[in-house]
Amino acid sequence: MQALGTEATTWLAVGHGIAGLAALVLAPWKTRVSTRGVARRNRGRSFSLAFAVVAIGVLLTGILHMTGLVITLGPVTTLWLHIALSLTLIPYLAWHVTVRRTLPRRTDLSRRNLLRLSGLAAAGVALWWGGEGVTRAAALAGARRRFTGSHETSSFVPAGVPVTSWLNDRVPVVDGETWRVTIQDANGLRSLSLFDLADLSNEEIIADLDCTSGWWSRQAWTGVRLDRLLQTGEAGSVLVRSVTGYDRRFPVRDLDRIWLATTVGDQPMLAGHGYPARLVIPGRRGFWWVKWVAAIETSDLPWWVQPPYPLS
After folding, report:
1. Which residues, 6 or more positions from 39, have their beta carbon under 8 angstroms from its beta carbon?
2. Boundaries of domain holding 78
3. Using one digit for the tens of pLDDT, what is the confidence trace for 39-56?
4. Collapsed DSSP state (helix, strand, coil) of residue 202
C-alpha cells in the first residue's frame, strides 16, 4: 500500500520509524554481546563487523532523513542511501541468523519477555514522538516532510525537479517531431503524434510527484485523461510502456485518474522528466508515472499481474 502513496498508509511510515528507533534502544545491549564475540574471534568475525557497520549506516541515514539534517549526500538522497544500505543488510542478516542459529524456546513467550517487548515498543514510540517534537521545535526540514516521509523540492519550478529513473532506466534521446504513441484498444490500433495529442481534450492537473528516493514536488501538468483516450471494452487492465521498455499495468477503473501529460508549467517537459509524454497519476508514487511513453494497450489480464515494484 505504501507503493500507492496514499494518506491511509501513513501508519506504515510511522511504524517503520518506531521499529528503527526501537532497534536503536537495543544497541547498548547488543554492543556488549558483540564485543564479547569479537574478542573470542568467532567464525565469521569480519562478516559480523561488516554487518554492524551496515546496520549503523541504516539507522544513521534514517535519522538524518527523518530530521532533514542531511537530505542529500553528493548525487544521491539520504533516503536512497538508507534504502540501499537496508537491502545490503538482508544477506548479512540471513547469514547471521544461519550461523548464529537459535531455536525457539518455550520460555521466549514468558510474561517477563512479553513485558520487555512491550517496554521496547514503548521506548520506540517515545523516541519517535520525541524526535518529531524536537524536529518541529527546531524548525528542521524534517518537520515539513510529506506523510510518505518525502521532502518538498522545487514546487511549481519544473526545471528544479530532480531527474530520477527506476533502477537501470536511463534518459533516452527522443525526437518529438517523429515520436508517436501507439494506442491499442477496443477500436483497434492507431498512433498519435504530439500534434494529435494537442488537438484532444487536454486539461491542467495540479499533482504531487512523490519519488521513493525521498522527495516530492507539486507541478501544474497538462494532458489528456486516459479514459477519454481509450475505448477499453471488456479489458481487465491497461499496460503503459516506455521507450526504454519500462512498463506498468493499471486497473481500468482508474483511468479517469490517470493523464498522459505533454507539458508541465505550460512548457514541454525536459528530457529527464519524460519528454515527449509521461503519465501523471495523483495519489501514486513516482515509479507509476511512466516516462517517455511509447505504447498504451488494453489487456485481458488483471492489473495485479506484475511485481508491486518494478524489477528493473
Report:
1. none
2. 7-148
3. 666 666 777 788 888 988
4. strand
